[in-house]
Amino acid sequence: MRIFTTKEEIKTFLTHIKKENKTIGFVPTMGALHDGHLSLIKKAKKKNDIVVVSIFVNPTQFNNQEDLIKYPKTLDNDTKLLKSTNCDVLFFPSVEEIYENNVKSEKFNFDGLEHQMEGKFREGHFDGVGTIVKTFFEIVTPNKAYFGEKDFQQLQIIKKMVEKNQLPVKIKGCPIFREEDGLAMSSRNIRLSKKHREAAPFIYKTLKKANKKFGTENAINVTEWVENQFKKHPLLDLEYFTIADEKSLETIKNKESNKKYRAFIAVFAGEIRLIDNIRLNKN
Ligand code: AMP
Predict the structure, then answer these.
(1) Which residue has a Cα nearest atom 17 of ligand 1?
(2) Are 223 and 263 in contact (CB under 8 A)?
(3) Is 115 considered catalytic here?
(4) Architecture of the domain whose range is 2-174
(5) pLDDT tens by residue, 117-138
(6) Could you tell me the pTM of the whole model?
(7) Fewest Cβ atoms closer than 10 Å to its Cβ: which of 10, 29, 71, 91?
(8) Is the dihedral of CA 106, 109, 115, 118 positive or negative?
(9) Distance from residue 173's CA to the centre of ligand 1 (Å)
């Protein structure tokens, strides 16, 4: 596996790859890799000649400084895992290399997708995401880029950015990888205390029950039911639960037959914020 830390070096290397007419698959991450990340890399390996993974904890997408400072960093283990998946290139730049002396986001218009859910609770988050993904696309020039449905709103926003700017890259969504007890894999899970880690599978259990209820009840009733489940829970604090249209990400009132819906949730387990979502069946 080749490891690059500067834009110039990786660009030079990838220019040669392109000249050989090889395709590039790209998986951007913030490191502290787990099986969820690896599933994206394995998918990319199958469909591209070479796979580039970036590890970069992007400061401009953090609205909470403590979350940024305490974000897990496990580079040695990440490198081992990447080698075990036969990843071809790791791009691991510093903040200075990417932002130079101006750690700021560009402002984006994602046609309103950015104002829903995470956008309401994490100010500036999607400007930060848009800025870094656009920058990385310019450096890596991937044919295909892989994003997890774990961050479903982010996936839709990246698709929107590509569509609006006609960027020459195909965006591939990948299903959520879970622990055996149902907790969605996340780099932040290693920061959970023992009791919060034990409590956290309640999130997905509740999402699955909400999915069942959505077959017979309306979105408002299901939402109230979920809110009540968390009010009763001693360790988990619900930030939001919402049932939204998969495309517009707007909260729905009534079901329509030709639309796809998802339930989205954000929960604090102590000081760790966890997000998850589930595709809903209408009946
Ligand atoms: P992160 O390192 O958290 O920024 O995630 C990097 C990529 O991996 C993003 O596209 C995430 O959506 C994806 N990802 C993170 N966790 C999971 C998971 N449990 N299942 C599938 N994809 C994931």
Answers:
(1) 36
(2) no
(3) no
(4) 3-Layer(aba) Sandwich (3.40)
(5) 999 999 999 999 999 999 999 9
(6) 0.98
(7) 71
(8) negative
(9) 10
